[in-house]
Design goal:
The chain has 345 residues and is mainly alpha-helical. The protein is built from 16 helices and 7 strands. The termini are far apart. About 12% of the residues have low confidence.
Length: 345
């Protein structure tokens, strides 16, 4: 593999040239050489075919040679440097483009609308997007729930838990802060009361947290001081998450369950709420025993950060996300919805 080093700006051409003794085919356009570029994404490419005797072929070959002259095979030192830099990105960013596939895993054998999909439960962090969506659709069968996450209404298939996420996201994007919300909206967002808006208890009910309930009503500004560290859009730094968790849980009677409820409601695309209903399953699946004892703050935060690094490496997280239908809603809340796989009631 040759790497182009001498560039001005970003080296960005996608240039796929095929030739035999007399003819050639060139595919060029927006598609990267990835599964997304050639299968999942909406892309635009041009296919050029012709004889090698035609002038355009000389121009194509000239461009290729120019690129090759600017390129070389990286040496071991450069590869080691790249590997180290890549690892920094993996550890500090919420958005990645690659993942390590396991050597052995069961493939999804059913399609949307079929019966229970056949995949290995232990590989949840290596699920494809289809497997992730199917897992949610059939979660009542996998977990022996007394209810279905998905249910049918006049609009088609949807999820009861999506109502909590949709409304909470709507409220925080409209108001920006807890203090600016209407009281009923704030209580729903924080999980302290349903307020006639639906079930706010998904992702951690706080209806029994008396001190916190009073703070939500009387002193939301105290919560905003910490929650404002988390932006409504874009990536979130590890430092910001650590500062948020450490700061908010330093307030008397504010637990990690409360802090993570607020975090996952503000950014359900990036954060998972952890509470007594899902902790056991998460520890069994991940081996992150630091999630067991929230009284040991540093251990808990380290385990929470490590959990999310695993999530962000998952194929279903990195997938080129759908923009229509129920899957587009799932995509917007995909990390928060991971709770459904571990919820034990």
């Amino acid at each position: 593999m040759n790497i182009v080093y001498d560039t001005v700006g970003v080296f960005h051409p996608k240039f796929y040239l095929f030739e035999n003794e007399t003819s050639f085919s060139l595919l060029t356009g927006s598609s990267n050489f990835t599964a997304g570029g050639f299968h999942k994404n909406i892309e635009s490419n041009v296919l050029i075919k012709g004889n090698k005797s035609e002038p355009i072929f000389s121009e194509i070959v000239g461009f290729y040679r120019l690129c090759k002259e600017k390129s070389r095979i990286p040496d071991d030192s450069e590869l080691e440097t790249y590997e180290a830099e890549h690892e920094k990105v993996i550890l500090n960013s919420s958005f990645f483009s690659t993942y390590d596939a396991p050597e052995e895993r069961k493939e999804l054998v059913t399609k949307a609308g079929d019966s229970l999909p056949d995949f290995s439960w232990e590989n949840i962090f290596q699920f494809t997007w289809d497997e992730y969506v199917h897992g949610l659709k059939f979660i009542d069968l996998y977990r022996n729930f007394p209810f279905k996450i998905f249910y049918a209404d006049n609009d088609g298939i949807r999820m009861d838990s999506l109502n909590t996420l949709e409304k909470s996201t709507e409220f925080i994007h409209k108001s920006k802060t807890l203090s600016a919300m209407e009281n009923t909206e704030r209580k729903f967002f924080c999980g302290t009361a349903d307020s006639g808006l639906g079930n706010s208890g998904w992702f951690g009910s706080m209806s029994g947290a008396g001190y916190f309930k009073n703070m939500v009503i009387e002193k939301p500004g105290i919560l905003d001081e910490h929650l404002n560290l988390i932006s409504l859009t874009g990536s979130i730094s590890e430092e910001a998450v650590r500062k948020y968790l450490d700061g908010l849980t330093s307030i008397d009677n504010v637990s990690f369950a409360i802090a993570l409820r607020l975090l996952s409601m503000k950014r359900p695309d990036l954060f998972l709420s952890i509470n007594k209903a899902n902790t056991k399953g998460l520890i069994e699946m991940t081996g992150l025993n630091g999630l067991k004892n929230s009284q040991k703050k540093e251990e808990f935060i380290e385990a929470y950060i490590e959990l999310h690094k695993r999530i962000y490496r998952s194929p279903w997280f990195q997938f080129n996300l759908p923009t229509e239908g129920i899957e587009s809603k799932i995509a917007k809340y995909r990390v928060a919805l991971l709770d459904c796989f571990f919820y034990e009631g």
